[in-house]
Amino acid sequence: MKLMAKKNIKAKEYSFTVIYELVKEGGYKAIVPLLPGLITYGKDFEEARKMVREAILCHIEALAKEGEEIPKESGLIQEKVAVKL
Predict the structure, then answer these.
(1) pLDDT in tens, 8-48
(2) What 3-state class would DSSP assign to 3?
(3) Of 23, 26, 34, 84, which residue is the least packed, with the fewest Cβ within 10 Å?
(4) What is the mean pLDDT of residues 49-57?
(5) Would you call 5 helix, strand, or coil by DSSP?
(6) Contacts within 8 Å (CB) and 24+ apart, 77-81
(7) 12 with 32: CB under 8 angstroms?
(8) Domain segments of the chain as ranges
(9) Alpha-carbon distance 39 to 31, whole Å?
(10) Is 51 buried (19+), middle (13-18) or exposed (0-12) by CB count in 10 A?
(11) What does the alpha-carbon distance between residue 51 and residue 8 come to, in Å, rounded to a whole number?
């Protein structure tokens, strides 16, 4: 019996900025600005993190399946700005 050599398939890693927002009713909302329409929720921060990872994966898998380009962040600057009124 001859064993077949395993192929070394290297997965490509993507990273996205996620914004978490505390929801008044409880839990967290998570959005990914680079993937419009991607919004998910979790009853706590850890669940929101898990849910957004799954949502991102599903979203980019669908893009890849359709032959569409998976967006990449470039030149992103994030800042919190405070003003007095």
Answers:
(1) 666 788 999 999 999 999 999 999 999 999 999 999 999 99
(2) coil
(3) 84
(4) 97
(5) coil
(6) 78/17
(7) no
(8) 19-65
(9) 5
(10) middle
(11) 29
Retrieve residue 82's tokens.
């405070």
Q: CA–CA distance from 39 to each of 12, 42, 81, 82 (Å)?
A: 23, 11, 23, 25
| DSSP-assigned beta bridge partners for residue 29 | 21, 41
d(CA 35, CA 33): 5
Provide the strand spans (E) within the chain.
19-22, 28-31, 39-42
Residue 52: closest CA among 66, 60, 41 = 41
Overall pTM surpassing 0.85 (yes/no): no
> Do residues 39 and 58 touch, judged by C-beta distance below 8 A?
no
Q: Hey, is 83 helix, strand or coil?
A: coil
